Recover the amino acids of this structure.
């Protein structure tokens, strides 16, 4: 009896150690985020301890700064276009890869996965070299093209793995009832995959919004928000930048958490069927 | 859509229709990736054999740029430093990430999904913002130094925290830890509890059960996480540029410098190709594990 009690105590001590350790790692992961948010609300003009007092003034200053607001709008617009293009490219390709027997499938998957795996710096340089042949694309169009390439890869992989678990009997049933491919897509596939599509769009948007290095290489005179923040980092970090970063960080966290929840919830039924 | 009626050996119209659908679905993405991914890399490869004369690109076939990568001591040093940093970062991520991945997969119960998402979520925030926060934390008058002083642990601020290889490594570990936890979690999650229990029933202690059951079975996740962590750590530019201080440059900073400041495209392209060669070699070597981790059987 005491042996079981000892074992139980050992087990709970082990669990407590696990919980304490994991809490430290989560602290490590969220400390920088907390720091940015903290100093966005602190009155001190140069971020540092001790805190000087609560203020929302930096948010007012940031929203009155034409450079910051302009960059925010530019980034939002460009990320929207990239995410829409990436989702539109990824969806049909993912359907074919998941449902049709395809020749050269691994080659195509490698091609799709490439931009995710290779160093972004090298991708950026490749784009710079490509733009030598099309100098009038430098700026906003080039940023959209580059971000679409990078996010389409990711979008295809996520959609592909989701569609593998899709019940094709629904499609067959609709086709046996005389629906053509377009009707099946509109009436069966689209409603059932819409959450995954929205999730992929949100992830692509978040990714394109925050991407810095490739955009920096091909931007010309265009200023996205990460580029403006990068430039401002040459001087002392202004709390204004922390204020706008706070908004972006909270938005990114909300969007990505929402999207991940959707992706995971979608994954569950198929996993159960597979098991 | 699936059924092919009859056993006729000729190609049926429905089959031809399917093939056309497959082609139409794949073509846009494949063409896009060819034009905006493969072609740029090929151009970069070609440029790496060109030379620079009077600030103008001169086509040709010269191996001089590649010789420089290995012969120029400064270049060679930064390549070695980058490999060392990436190795250290990978090792640190594995050691820090494994217990967390294990905790989420086996001990977290109904908080599993929440904790998993909480690990990945910071990864989606722009790296420029995430890394800039470490400057506030690590600087001479930064949060960590001031906290140490007010706790009485040091009287002088520690100068070496920011702008050193150490701060670069901290930033890289921070940036890529979520990326390592994800495949580790997937691999550990796939291990059935009954397998571990079976080992314990056969009188294996918790350490032995871990070493002989859990660890080998989570190997695909360890390898995949390590490969990605190493690749991203090796090619990362933002973190060393913001935290490294500029005295000891990593290879990504050298490439950027060649392209943007010195305008020596062939030189930069050659270093980029060496970097790509390292990445491709690592991916090829780990292909077996990548397949297992992605759910395909070997």
């Amino acid at each position: 009896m005491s042996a079981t009690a000892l074992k139980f105590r050992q087990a709970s001590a082990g669990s407590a150690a696990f919980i304490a350790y994991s809490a430290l790692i989560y602290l490590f992961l969220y400390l920088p985020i907390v720091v940015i948010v903290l100093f966005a609300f602190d009155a001190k003009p140069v971020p540092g301890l001790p805190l000087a007092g609560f203020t929302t003034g930096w948010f007012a200053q940031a929203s009155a700064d034409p450079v910051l607001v302009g960059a925010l709008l530019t980034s939002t617009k460009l990320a929207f276009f990239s995410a829409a293009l990436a989702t539109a490219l990824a969806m049909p390709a993912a359907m074919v890869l998941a449902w049709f027997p395809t020749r050269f499938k691994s080659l195509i998957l490698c091609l799709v996965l490439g931009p995710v795996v290779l160093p972004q710096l090298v991708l950026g340089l490749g784009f710079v070299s490509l733009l030598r042949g099309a100098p009038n694309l430098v700026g906003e169009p080039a940023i959209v093209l580059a971000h679409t390439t990078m996010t389409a890869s990711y979008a295809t992989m996520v959609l592909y793995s989701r569609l593998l678990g899709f019940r094709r009997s629904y499609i067959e049933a609709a086709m046996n009832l005389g629906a053509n491919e377009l009707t099946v897509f509109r009436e069966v596939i689209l409603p059932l995959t819409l959450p995954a599509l929205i999730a992929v769009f949100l992830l692509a948007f978040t990714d394109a919004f925050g991407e810095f290095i490739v955009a920096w290489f091909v931007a010309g005179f265009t200023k996205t928000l990460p580029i403006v923040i990068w430039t401002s980092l040459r001087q002392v970090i202004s709390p204004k930048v922390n204020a706008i970063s706070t908004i972006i960080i909270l938005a990114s966290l909300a969007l990505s958490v929402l999207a991940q929840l959707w992706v995971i919830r979608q994954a569950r039924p198929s996993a159960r069927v597979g098991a | 859509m699936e059924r092919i009626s009859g056993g006729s050996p000729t190609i049926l119209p429905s089959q031809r229709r399917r093939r056309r659908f497959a082609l139409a679905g794949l073509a846009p993405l494949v063409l896009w990736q060819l034009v905006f991914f493969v072609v740029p890399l090929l151009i970069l490869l070609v440029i790496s054999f060109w030379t620079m004369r009077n600030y103008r690109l001169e086509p040709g076939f010269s191996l001089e740029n590649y010789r420089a990568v290995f012969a120029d001591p400064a270049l060679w040093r930064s390549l070695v430093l980058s490999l060392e940093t990436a190795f250290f970062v990978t090792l640190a991520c594995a050691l820090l990430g494994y217990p967390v991945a294990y905790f989420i997969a086996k001990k977290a119960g109904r908080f599993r999904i929440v904790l998993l998402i909480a690990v990945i979520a910071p990864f989606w925030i722009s790296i420029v913002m995430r890394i800039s926060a470490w400057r506030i934390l690590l600087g001479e008058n930064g949060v960590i130094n001031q906290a140490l002083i007010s706790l009485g642990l040091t009287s002088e601020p520690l100068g070496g925290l920011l702008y050193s290889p150490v701060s670069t490594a901290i930033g890289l570990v921070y940036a890529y830890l979520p990326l390592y936890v994800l495949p580790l979690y997937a691999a550990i999650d796939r291990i059935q509890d009954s397998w571990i229990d079976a080992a314990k029933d056969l009188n294996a202690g918790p350490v032995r059960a871990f070493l002989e059951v859990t660890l080998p079975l989570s190997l695909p996740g360890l390898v995949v996480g390590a490969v990605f962590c190493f690749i991203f750590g090796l090619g990362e530019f933002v973190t060393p540029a913001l935290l490294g201080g500029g005295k000891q440059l990593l290879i990504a900073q050298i490439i950027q410098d060649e392209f943007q400041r010195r305008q020596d495209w062939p030189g930069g392209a050659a270093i980029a190709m060496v970097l790509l060669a390292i990445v491709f070699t690592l991916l090829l070597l780990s292909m077996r594990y990548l397949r297992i981790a992605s759910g395909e059987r070997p």
